[in-house]
Amino acid sequence: FLQPWRAAICNYVDAFLGVMLLALLVCAPMAAGIETDRRPLQLLGFTSLVSMMVVGTCALIMGVIKFFRRTPHYDIFLCHHKEHAAAQVRYIKTCITNTSKSNVFIDSDNL
């Protein structure tokens, strides 16, 4: 519920951009009716706008780099004898995937 994205960095970027957007939306109406010095509100609004642009650009660049960088598709490769160890290797795969975020490949899964 509180983490809608699969990658943790996406959740942090989403939360940061949401908070900065709220700060920007709060600053604009407050500055509209003020007849005195608007400089602090302008500075807060400008800072939140620039930080949103910088974080968004950095997240986009990181996503493009991660997309084009070649990484192995699986973290763990399990090989077994089909007649004697099929159940055991499936159990090992279940244990590994339940306790970690590793992507496990069994040699007989994708033939």
Describe this structure as you would to a colleague.
- This protein is mainly α.
- Helices cover 62% and strands 5% of the residues.
- It contains three helices and two strands, in the order ααβαβ.
- It has a two-stranded parallel sheet with strand order 1-2.
- β1 (76-78), α3 and β2 form a beta-alpha-beta unit.
- The longest helix has 30 residues, at 39-68.
- The radius of gyration is 24 Å and the shape is rod-shaped.
- The model has no long low-confidence stretch (mean pLDDT 83).
**What separation lies between the terminal Cα atoms?**
36 Å
> What oligomeric state do these chains adopt?
single chain
The shape, in one word, is rod-shaped
- How do the strands of the widest beta sheet line up side by side? 1-2
Number of helices: 3
Beta-strand fraction estimate: 5-15%
Structural class: mainly alpha
